[in-house]
Write a structure and sequence with these properties.
- This protein is an alpha+beta fold and about 160 residues long.
- It has one domain (about 15-160): Aminopeptidase (3-Layer(aba) Sandwich).
- Helix content is about 35%, strand content about 20%.
- It has five helices and six strands; from the N terminus they run ββαααβββαβα.
- A six-stranded mixed beta sheet has the order 1-2-3-4-5-6, sandwiched between helices.
């Protein structure tokens, strides 16, 4: 893979979410809270991300989660894709994630997706995250046509688009 963004891009280091939370780049050291969050919401996450990405598998191990987070860190360093953890302000728990990726399908210059853990579905945090993410990707990133999957179009609509 090659970087799809200019080499001088500096990804935002932290993005406030007005519910006592913030986004910051995911780290391998987040594995203990990331794994708990993913596995506690695994069935719902699979219903969203299973068909397009095969994630998270029922058999996901802690070690595989660490490897995923290491990969995300490397991809960020190389400007290949960006994974942000949604954390409470004290960083005691992970409440979800935001992904900023090169487009896999035609019609956009970036594919953005996000999720929250089950206990935050339909809450002010989920609504705030959606608002923050849609504004953030349009204002803080160099995209012309970003696409927020799940907001701008459904996953089903996205899957029907031709691949890049």
């Amino acid at each position: 893979m090659r970087p799809w963004l200019p080499s001088d891009i500096v990804p935002p280091a932290q993005v406030p979410v007005p519910t006592g939370h913030h986004l910051r780049p995911s780290r391998a050291s987040d594995a203990s809270i990331d794994y708990v969050a993913v596995m506690a919401s695994r069935e719902r996450l699979w219903s969203v991300f299973g068909e397009p990405h095969g994630w998270p598998p029922e058999s996901l191990t802690f070690e595989e989660d660490v490897a995923d987070l290491v990969r995300h860190e490397e991809e960020m360093r190389e400007l290949l894709s960006f994974n942000y953890a949604l954390l409470d302000d004290e960083e005691r728990y992970l409440a979800g994630c935001v992904y900023v990726d090169p487009p896999e399908r035609v019609g956009a210059d970036a594919d953005i997706s996000f999720w929250v853990i089950d206990r935050f579905v339909g809450t002010p945090l989920a609504a705030s995250l959606e608002s923050v993410v849609t504004r953030w990707v349009r204002d803080a990133w160099p995209f012309v046509e970003p696409r927020v999957i799940g907001c701008d179009l459904s996953w089903e609509e996205w899957l029907r688009l031709p691949e890049q």
